[in-house]
# Entry
Amino acid sequence: MKTSIEWLKEYSDINVDAKTLADRLTITGSKVETIEQKGNDIKNVVVGKILEITKHPNADKLIVTKVDIGNEVVQIVTGADNVHVGDIIPIAKDGSELPGDVKIKKGMLRGVESCGMMCAVTELGLDLADYPEQIEHGIMILPKEFEKFIGKDIVDVLKLREDILDFEITSNRPDCFSIEGLGRETAISLGEKFKNPHKDLDKEVKTVNEIEGLKVDIEAKDLCYRYIARVIKDVKIESSPEWMKRRLNACGVRAINNIVDITNYVMLELGEPMHAFDINSVKGKHIIVRRAKENEKIITLDEIERTLDNSDLVIADEEKPAAIAGVMGGLHSGISEDTKTVVFEAATFNRGTVRLTAKKVGLRTESSSRFEKGLSPEIALRAINRAVELAEMIGAGKAVEAKIDVYPEKEKQKIIKFEPEKINNLLGMNISEEEMKTILENLGIKVNGNMLEIPYFRVDIERTADIAEEIIRIHGYDTLQSTLINAESTLGAKTKEQKLQDQVKEFLVNKGFSEMYSFAFISPEEFKKCKLDNTKAIKIKNPLGEDYSLMRTSMMPTVLQSIATNYNKKNKNVQLFEIGKIYSDEQGNIEKDELPTEIEQIAFAIYGENADFYTVKGIIENILEISNISKYQLEREINANLHPGRSAKILIGKDKIASFGEVHPEVLENYGIGEKVYYAVLDIEKFAKYGKNNKKYIPIPKYPAVERDIAIVVDEEIEVGQIENIISKKAKNILETAKLFDIYRNEKLGANKKSVAYELIFRAKDRTLTDDEIKNTMDAITKELQVALGAELRA
Amino acid sequence: MKDQILKIKENAEKDVSNAKSLQELNDVRVKYLGKKGELTAVLRGMGSVAPEERPIIGGFVNEARDIIENKIELKEKELKEKALNEKLQKEKIDITMPSKKTKIGSIHPITGVIDNVKEIFLGLGYEIADGPEIEKTYYVFDQLNTPIDHPARDLQDTFYINDNIVLRSQTSSVQIRVMETQKPPIKIICPGAVYRSDSVDPTHSPVFHQFEGLVIDKNITMSDLKGTLEIFAKKCLGEGTQIRFRPHHFPYTEPSAEVDVSCFVCKGKGCRVCKNQGWIELLGCGMVHPKVLENCGIDSNIYSGFAFGCGLERIAMAKYGIDDMRLLYENDVRFLKQF
# Structure
């Protein structure tokens, strides 16, 4: 909301500069976003009078003038053809400045000296619409009576100097969407008296059912709480007086004509959006406030046809809608130059309806943005009285001394209990009851014993907490003390899962991984690239675009996207990890308004040096160790986006907790990545769940270990895991470790054969192992390897 | 006889000091003290000495032996030390050669800030709470005093999955979940990702992170809120940080405030980061609205509380001087490794 400080001065003395005023208002809750100081960009432009015009000796289209600018007469060359001897005009002198950083200096124009410039309306940064008597491509001709201002600064003469504050109005303060409301805040912020120039607007004129044949009915009583109409006769449509136009302008509202300007002026002044009709445009002279019909059409003032439905509210006559209630008037009911009798409307509409309709038709107007914050029906009477007062004051017409006022249910006076102690307790302050009373009275809240009468314009105040805010914002938020909670002490601690996540994160960082962040919504295209099924993916109804429309069901797309980014930027040896969630609706929960599944995962990927399957496997095994998981199975993974021969998963029982391997070459190709990438993903919640909590001490071995090597030749397809399984099965509980120390292949072994050698360490907890025991165990292992795997023992 | 012994002793001493190596020293030992050594030979020849003189000569011999042995021992120590020094000298390496350090990764700047925030509030006795990102409007709006016709619920601000399920636009939903299931005292912070319908540009992102704090107990005051946030601001942004409360409006708190901190780049003098204001808007906060307490079954006549919420990207960007939010989500390792 923009307003000029000049207007605010009607409500409060202001003896501080614009910046100080803005700071004071900001600190008490009316945040000033910008201060615009109009007129500061015009310097050294004065009123001048043309004394003489002669032809330019060297140019047909130029003229040479002598201009009286007060203390001297200067020569100015111009190409303008609308100037005459005796005209009073704005002159930009040598060394002057105009809006848009234009600097005027004297110079030669086709060989003749020119000591300044005559200004057009737009060159002064003014809006041509505000000066209808001026022409677009010509010099601004000032009224003859301005002769007395010759030599005076144009900024002062045209009253262009104006300080304008732009406020951010929060949604709970519709009253501050008005000069009156901001005036009240100004007075209280500066500690000045609030001088309300419009105290007598509550005066009642008699209510009638019909004026000049006009009747009003509210059909949709649930959406329209009050409708007041007054009639102005003998209307003469013309331009509004300068003072009114200037104020409208300062608030960013364009002047149109006296009647429309009055409605806008009252809206700005009192916060109640108004509307004016030509009485002859109302068919049957019957105004009906009703819901729109399905597909009912209206052409609004901006000449666009809008289609409405049953959820929208309209002001209609007996035939068709004349306005979308609270949003915008219809083109055909508007005020025209021939209008003779005007109906002023001040009404109160349901805030939600106005907001939704405005949004639906894409029209957020000055009017709708006030109604949607919620207005009291009590303002309507003051607004309409003010409009009538203004109409008579500026001679726009003559008011009929009666009103139509459909007000089915009068708003009740809001009363809440005054609880100073509770207020101090909530604030942690010790503000005296007397001071509280003064603050409240200044805000227009009447203190009546231990009861508070809340004025109609404070729709936001409902309970003691609201009063506490009023007290402290005026007493000063800066006076709040800084105290520490005086309450039962609590233990701040991380949960097991939070701790594990931190440990894993730290481990990955120590292993060279950098943490990445991404958006959890991705493009359907990403699903395809990663060979993922997107039928169960959760769709956003109103995404920013197709590229951000599906919630990821896997961490792979975002991780690979970032890997691809780095690959494309030619970064070498990249290692990334991401902690994030995946989302899916396997159970069809969303349809039942229940929440889908979210699983927290840690994913990492690596390319370049050290990037191989076994490095990733090692990291996974380390994380299992960190998580205190010692019993798990490693199996081959079947996953369309991983290399079928180079991927694996970790299971606990049947529960998969991790999956890793080389990214499938087709997936890499989809991302344009020309290097092998290894990827892993862990369900971190499951790692926390399966991790053993209690570590128990196991005695350090007391008896000696026995070491034996074994080397066998097996077929190439045999996996070392199979060999290890046999060794540990046959060695029972005396095997301490079985370490693979050599694999080799050569012609002597034969095609498709390999030699595998292990170092076995045996040890018993409770005794020294005998040679016989070891020999028997080794024999059992050898035999089983021969039988089960067709292994040959090497010498 | 005595002269002969003295002679041997002198020769031996000379030979010991001339020995160049442990081997030579050993040869000297054998030559004089060995079974066939010169001094041993003197003892063997004792038969020709008068019996009464034997102890005297014996004494001479032993004395000479002790002296020689002593000399050998000293020499041996000297030679060993020398040999070791030579060996160490030979083993000298070029310490400026490249090391075998392992590559260390990095924590994302947002995580860095989250970790910092967690540490501060854990120390103050807060727990860390978490909740779903795809959340019911009941938790994101209804229970937070943001009714169905409130502008915050607009499609242009919030991502909807269906009419009643959204991508949470604030982590306050976690507060409601905690208040509905736990009895006061409650002291939590909830950090996490939130979603708002903003296009990607240098200062906006449809996904960002925030943390919110909530305290509910008897006698919690707005002054406590200010005290708490002052500690937070000083610990997170530097001891010299000042805070400023400005009145504001949120549907779920009353009284409400926006909090500015003195610019931690220019210390309040005015710079590009604070747009010459000297202050940076940091967070929103207030006393939990009585309606919100009552919605969650907490008696607002007995309990009061405060809540605050703060964007993490904003802190990370200001703290590290990052001028484009998109860098945080692009994941170029040349960016990530700097943190």
